[in-house]
Amino acid sequence: MNEIFNPKINKEDFENLLLKTNRRYIKDLIVYLDKDTDFYTAPASSNYHGNYKYGLLEHSAEVYNHLNALIKLYQYPVNEDSIIIIGLLHDLCKANFYNATTRNRKINGEWIQEPYYSIVDSCPLGHGEKSEIGRAHV
């Protein structure tokens, strides 16, 4: 089945795996991600998993790895391209979704400023709907 790569994936590994699919517009998508989005440096969330710089890229690699392992374990007949696209692009809608900022937080009676990611949602659809729209064009 597919190779497992380090969750600390880099942009080049991510792009090479997508290129393996040979999908019609995959090169255009890669250029778009690189030039017009923060996908490679964005967090995966504002408060939960991967809420740090490069978290979205790392989370996408982890989802790919887990999906790949489950399919191998249960011997599901799934096309390798589908595993790559679903795993790596399932959160495509989170590109350009977060803004690095700070917020005040009270710790031990003192207010401190801490890094925080706020949400900038220019498309008021749900997470699942946005991801489906993005995957439909791959």
Q: Your description of this structure?
A:
With 138 residues, the protein is of the alpha+beta class. It has helices at 11-19, 26-36, 55-74, 80-89, 127-136; strands at 98-107, 110-119. α3 (55-74) runs antiparallel to α4 (80-89). The longest helix is centred in the middle third of the chain and has 20 residues, at 55-74. Residues 1-6 have low confidence and may be disordered.
Brief digest:
The protein is of the alpha+beta class and 138 residues long. Helix content is 43%, strand content 14%.
Question: What does the secondary structure layout of this molecule look like, with pairings?
Answer:
Layout (H helix, E strand, L loop, with lengths): L10 H9 L6 H11 L18 H20 L5 H10 L8 E10 L2 E10 L7 H10 L2
Antiparallel strand pairs: 1-2
